[in-house]
Amino acid sequence: MDWIYLVIAGLFEIGWAIGLKYTEGFSRLWPSLATICAMIASLGLLSAALKTIPVGTGYAVWTGIGAAGTAIIGMAFLGESREVLRILCIVLIVSGVVGLKLASSSGH
User: SS3 string of the chain?
Assistant: First the structure.
C-alpha cells in the first residue's frame, strides 16, 4: 500500500509543479488554492509512504515521478521541446525510478 501512496504522491507533485505555472506567483486565487492543495496531498502521501519505504528510495522515486511527469506534460500540452536527448533523459529518470523500486528491500 505504501508504494501506491508514493506513486499517488508523485502524481500530486506533477499537479503542483504544473499548477505553479498558472498561479502567476500565487496572485491568482483558484490556481493557487489548487496548487497548495496538491502540495499538501503530495507531502502527506509521501510522509505516509516513508513509514515503510526507505527515505532515500522514497524521495528519489517521488522526485523522479514528478520530474519525468512534469516534463512529459510540458512536452505534450505546453509546447516544450521534444528533442530526442530530452526524451532519452526522461527515459533514464523513469528507468532509475523502476530500478529503485525493484532494488528496494520493501518492495513486496
Answer: CHHHHHHHHHHHHHHHHHHHHHHCCCCCHHHHHHHHHHHHHHHHHHHHHCCCCCHHHHHHHHHHHHHHHHHHHHHHHCCCCCCHHHHHHHHHHHHHHHHHHHHCCCCC
Which amino acid, residue 59? Y
Cβ atoms of residues 32 and 24 within 8 Å: no
pLDDT digits (tens, 9 = 90+) for 15-40: 999 999 999 999 999 999 999 999 99
pTM of the model: 0.91
Q: Which amino acid would we find at residue 44?
A: G
* Model confidence pLDDT, tens digit, residues 84-93: 999 999 999 9
